[in-house]
Specification:
4-stranded antiparallel β-sheet; alpha+beta; elongated
């Protein structure tokens, strides 16, 4: 049974088949709300018009297929403050323009803290832009050179699979060894640098350990 012979039948709660259309998948019966989707062989060559039930179900299936196939990215971008583009002079002027004696008059310590926190947050939003960063699973010592060598290794593997010759096999072996050597040396140099700066830059040390 090929794909052209398959049809997707929509069966309502009463058991009556409403339409037959091409299937999106070869899965078994799937229930979406009050609609049950089943795969079956077509008995007629005519193509029925999709109903509202099918359109609703097909829209849901398209979204699921898109998320699982990479059409829709499930990776959430993280927004962080971009201090390199911050204007600290204007931020300082804005924070100095408030009359804190009036704002904090007859306020307890907790209320004064909340007022100051709110003013700092407002000035931060005004004068420190944000940037979006993509989360990555790469280790801290991963570099662009390693990425370039990995891409070269993949290309050499494709050439080896295509031509199956001894020169291409040797090329792929050298590419694999280059990736391994570069990974070891880069990781070792990174750890030496972090260890040497452990006392002067403990934040970098603990960041590397936690990652």
């Amino acid at each position: 049974m090929n794909t052209a012979q398959m049809r997707l039948a929509i069966v309502d709660q009463s058991g009556n088949k409403t339409t037959k259309v091409n299937p999106a998948t070869r899965l078994g019966p799937v229930t979406i709300g009050s609609t049950t989707l089943t795969n079956e062989r077509s008995r007629s060559g005519s193509r029925a018009q999709p109903t509202a039930q099918y359109k609703e179900a097909a829209t849901l299936c398209d979204g699921v297929r898109g998320m699982t196939s990479g059409r829709y990215s499930m990776t959430q971008h993280k927004q962080v403050l971009d201090y390199k583009r911050a204007n600290f002079e204007l931020m300082k002027e804005e924070l100095g323009s408030y009359n804190y004696e009036v704002l904090m008059n007859n306020k307890n310590a907790e209320e004064c803290y909340m007022i100051l926190k709110d003013k700092i947050a407002t000035a931060t939003d005004h004068h420190i832009p944000r940037k979006r960063i993509r989360p990555t699973n790469n280790p801290p010592w991963f570099s662009q050179e390693i990425k370039r060598l990995i891409n070269a290794r993949q290309h050499s593997y494709r050439r080896l699979k295509r031509y199956q010759t001894e020169p291409h096999r040797q090329e792929h072996i050298h590419a694999c060894r280059a990736v391994g050597r570069t990974k070891k040396s880069t990781k070792r140099n990174k750890e030496i640098t972090v260890a040497a700066q452990a006392k002067t830059n403990p934040k970098s040390f603990y960041k590397y350990v936690n990652d």
